[in-house]
Amino acid sequence: MLRLTTVLLTLLVPTFAFAQGGLDAQYRTFLETKMWPKAKAAGVSRTTFDNALAGKKLNQKIPGLVTPGTSGTPKKIRQAEFSQPSNYFNERNLGSIVATGRNLLKQNATVIKSIERKYGVPGRFLIAIWGRESGFGRVAIPHDAFEVLSTKAFMSTRPELFQGELIAGLQMVERGLASPSQMKSSWAGALGQPQFLPSSYLKYAVDMDGNGKPDIWNSTVDTLGSIGAYLNKFGWQEGRDWGFEVILPNNISCAQEGPDNRKTFAEWARLGVKRVNGKPFPKIEMNKLGSILMPAGRSGPAFIVTPNFYVFKEYNESDLYALFVGHAGDRIQYGGSPFKAGWRKTDSMLRSDIASMQRNLEKMGMDVGGADGLPGFKTRRSIGDWESAHQRQPTCFPSNELIRAIK
To answer: Which residues does the UniProt record annotate as the domain Transglycosylase SLT (predicted)?
Structure first.
C-alpha cells in the first residue's frame, strides 16, 4: 500500500520538481501502471507491449506538451494549420500540389473512378488530401509512432486522447496490421500517406488492392481508398460541392458566420450574396443549406460552404485545412487561380494569448467554442459581436490590439 501511495504521489508532483531522470522514471511508471493494464484489457499481449515500448524515451521536443497532472495552453505550436492564413495559402506551395495532383489524377484515373463509385467522393479531393498530408507519399515521416504517442499520452494537453491512440497503435501491431518498425508517424502521431491516427486506421482504412490488409504506407490504391472511406463515413453528400467564394453585401456581418447560422442558397442570394466569378449558384444547391465562412474575418475572402466543407473538417479540424483541400481539389480538376479577395497579413500571436482573450469573452457570456487558443468560427464571431458592442467596425479576427482590449 505504501509503495502504491508513493507512485500515485509521484505522478501528481509537477514536472519542474524533477530532474530529467526523475521525469523519465515517472514516464516508465506511467507506462507500466496505467498503460499496460489498459493495453491488456484491449487484447494486447505482453510481448507486443514490450516490443513496441521497450526502450522508448520521452521526446520533449514534441510541441504541445504540458507538465503531467496540469492543464495549460502551449504558447506556440508548429502545425501549419495554426499559422497566418496568408502563409498557409502560399501560392508556391498550393500551386505545386495542384500541378502534381493534376498529373496524378490522370495517372490514377481507373482506381479513382472505382473509389468514386464506392464512396461518392470526387477524386480531385482524394488527391488534394493526399498531397496536403504527405506530399503524395513523398514527404519523409520520421518519428517513431510509439515514442510520440506514449510521450503525448503522458504529458500532452489531451492525454486521454493519446492514451486511446497508443492503445489503438498497439492493437494494430497485435493484429498483424503493422510492425513496430513500420509505425512511423508525424509529431502528432499520424501514420502513413493519409496521416491517420491509429484509431482512424482501425475504423476507416480499407484494403482496396486486395492484398489482405490496408497498407497506407506503400499502397497508393489503399491510401486513396482509405481517404474516400473516411470522408464517406463522416457524411459526404454525393453530388454537392464544398462551397463557393462570394462577395458579402454590407448588411451581412462577419459575425453571422457558422454552420448554426445556415440558410438556403436561395435565401443567401436574395440577401445579396453573389459569387465572385459572377455566375449564379448551381441550381442543385438553391434549396439546400449553406453557411458563411470567413476564416480570416475581414482580412481574407468570404465563402458560402456546404455540409461537405465540414466533412473535410472531420479529417482536420482547421478551417484553413478544409478550405485548402477544397480549393486545391477544384484547381486540380478544373484549373483556375487563387481566391479573388486574397489574404491580408494578420498579426503574429501566441496561442496562449488568444486563449486568454477567449476566456475573457467567455466571462462575458460568449460562446467561443472553448479557450484553446485557436480562432475558430465561434471565436471569430464572438470577436465581431464584441466589436459591434463597443462601436468598432467588426473585423472578426484576433489581433494583438484586440487581445489587449478585450478584458
So the answer is: 34-330
User: DSSP labels for 336-384?
Assistant: --S-SS---------HHHHHHHHHHHHHTT---S-SSS---HHHHHHHH
Q: Give the domains, in start order, of the chain with CATH numbers.
A: 2-71+142-190 (1.10.8), 84-137+211-233 (no CATH), 243-334 (no CATH), 351-405 (no CATH)
Q: Distances from the Cα of 318 to the Cαs of 23, 194, 274, in angstroms?
A: 33, 16, 25
Q: Is 93 helix (H, G, I), strand (E, B) or coil?
A: helix
CA–CA separation, 315 vs 118, rounded Å?
19
In angstroms, the CA 268 to CA 351 distance is: 34
> Which segments in the chain show pLDDT lower than 50?
1-19, 77-81
SS3 string, 45-67, reads CHHHHHHHHCCCCCCCCCCCECC
Grid cell digits, residue 90: 502560399
DSSP 33: I
Instruction: State the cell numbers at 56.
Output: 522508448
Q: Which three cell numbers, joined as nine digits, stand for 97?
A: 500540389
End-to-end CA distance of the chain: 48
Give the CA distances from residue 377 to residues 29, 43, 253, 289, in Å, rounded to whole numbers and listed in that order: 41, 40, 13, 17
Kindly tell me the burial class for residue 169, based on how many C-beta atoms sit within 10 Å of its own C-beta (0-12, 13-18, 19 or more).
buried
pLDDT digits (tens, 9 = 90+) for 294-330: 999 999 999 999 999 999 999 999 999 999 999 999 9
Q: Do residues 194 and 130 make contact, with C-beta atoms less than 8 angstroms apart? A: yes
CA nearest neighbour of 325 among 74, 131, 118: 131
Single pTM value for the model: 0.89
Q: How far apart are CA 20 and CA 28, in angstroms?
A: 12
Return the pLDDT at 95.
95
In terms of Cβ atoms closer than 10 Å to its own Cβ (0-12, 13-18, 19+), residue 277 is: exposed
